[in-house]
TrEMBL record:
Full protein name: Uncharacterized protein
Lineage: Bacteria, Bacillati, Bacillota, Bacilli, Bacillales
Keywords of this entry: Membrane, Transmembrane, Transmembrane helix
Pfam families assigned to the protein according to its UniProt record, in alphabetical order: DUF5412
Domain of life: Bacteria
InterPro entries: DUF5412 (IPR035406)
KW Transmembrane helix (keyword) present: yes
Positions of transmembrane segments: 6-29, 49-66
Length: 157
């Protein structure tokens, strides 16, 4: 995903979550005031808006937590392309609007031109990465089979 698009979606998601929390607080206060005044009407419109905000917030959170394509592209460090046979481990760094450092490792097959993200994590400092053989790579102490394994701190960490 494009870095700018990722930043816009993250800001929009955070905005909708904060707005939903604010609306939930207002809704609770209104319900308490209605109970004190013994008003039996229910604020349907407010509840509908709160429900839509809640649904959008849940969709955003689930997408951020479980969608492997909801990752920033990052910036390829040309000095960090580590080749072994037909495969290259390409290391992308990303720092967004929040001060944190993410690293994404993509395995690129030179013959088929297929790319697959196998590792995504926070990294403070240089990334420890080494090929063990043609199909196994060790990244930050985690041994991954490039054919089937992945590591994503959002799910596995």
């Amino acid at each position: 995903m494009n870095n700018t698009l990722f930043n816009v979606l993250m800001l929009a998601g955070i905005f909708f979550m904060l707005l939903t929390i604010l609306l939930a607080g207002i809704f609770i206060i209104r319900m308490i005031l209605r109970a004190i005044r013994r008003d039996k009407t229910f604020p349907k419109r407010h509840f509908q808006i709160l429900s839509i905000g809640g649904i959008l917030s849940v969709v955003f959170l689930l997408n951020w937590l479980y969608n492997p394509y909801f990752l920033p592209k990052g910036f390829l460090d040309d000095s960090k392309i580590i080749a072994y046979g037909d495969n290259e481990a390409r290391i992308y760094h990303y720092t967004g609007f929040i001060p944190y450092k993410n690293v994404r490792v993509e395995i690129y097959n030179k013959n088929t031109h297929d790319a697959r993200t196998i590792y995504y994590n926070y990294v403070n400092g240089p990334l420890g990465i080494a090929w063990l053989d043609e199909v196994k790579i060790q990244i930050e102490g985690k041994v991954l089979d490039i054919r089937k394994d992945t590591y994503d701190f959002r799910k596995d960490g």
